[in-house]
Amino acid sequence: MYGQSPTRAVLFLLGVQLTALWPVAAVEIYTPRVLEAVNGTDVWLKCTFSSFAPVGDALTVTWNFRPRDGGPEQFVFYYHVDPFKPMSGRFKDRVVWDGNPERYDVSILLWKLQFDDNGTYTCQVKNPPDVDGLIGEIQLSVVQTVRFSEIHFLALAIVIVVVLFQHFRKKRRAERAHKVLNQEKKAAVSLEYTD
Length: 195
Description:
By secondary structure, the protein is α+β, with helices and mostly antiparallel strands. It has helices spanning 6-21, 150-194; strands spanning 28-30, 33-38, 43-45, 48-50, 60-67, 74-80, 82-84, 95-97, 108-110, 119-126, 136-143.
């Protein structure tokens, strides 16, 4: 740079400054990261994104799968203006587009889960000029039955509290009614003796 014209040096510095001020164009992907679903059921693989550029016809979405036990990455789904389902392989007739790009949603629905569907599902979105960014990942575990989560415990606790509350409320009402009935009987007996 030394020995060059001052005009060239100024243009170079101006270019560096403008590049630093220009926003970085990168797509950001949002997924649940970890998901558990029961064998034989359907699962929604949610993937949303944000982009500096408006969504247009250049948007592409690629879903792939890496088996948990190893093996090559496999194609799951592709979207570019229209959804393209796999024509062969493990996901043929088992995956459907459930996204809405205008709402920044590029989710898919996977039908009839099998144990060999365990693995990592990747969601890659390119929205030119935003083509860089991390790929979204979902670790899917297909299980025989869903584990009892904190939400299930909370729901069970609420049901138990409501049932106990109703039981004790009925018991209290019955005790009051019995007490009133006993007082009425005593009053009736005492009236008989006074007559």
